[in-house]
Design brief:
The protein is an alpha+beta fold. The protein has three helices and six strands.
Amino acid sequence: MGCEYDALPDDPAAYRRRLAALIEAVAALPSVCRRVGERELWLRDPAGPAEGWDEAQLVFGDDCVRLACMTPLSAAVRADLRALPQLLGGARFVDDDGEAAAF
């Protein structure tokens, strides 16, 4: 069973201005295993098997980053997700009900 969250930037205008640079900064995180197009990154535990399901998908939208979790998140992926709000210049994760999510 999967779940989805949004990383809502504290300053959406700054997020939009810096979007390309933000994607490149996030792409450098250790758990990023593949890139699809300009705005989609996939994360997987670097110590995990090379084959199989990737753990999480990040899609950089115009106003937020959508996180879709396909499997339970490893400690390595959770660590990178905790770094995401700082890279965005301040952000918070919320679930579909607007409740805060903690990684």
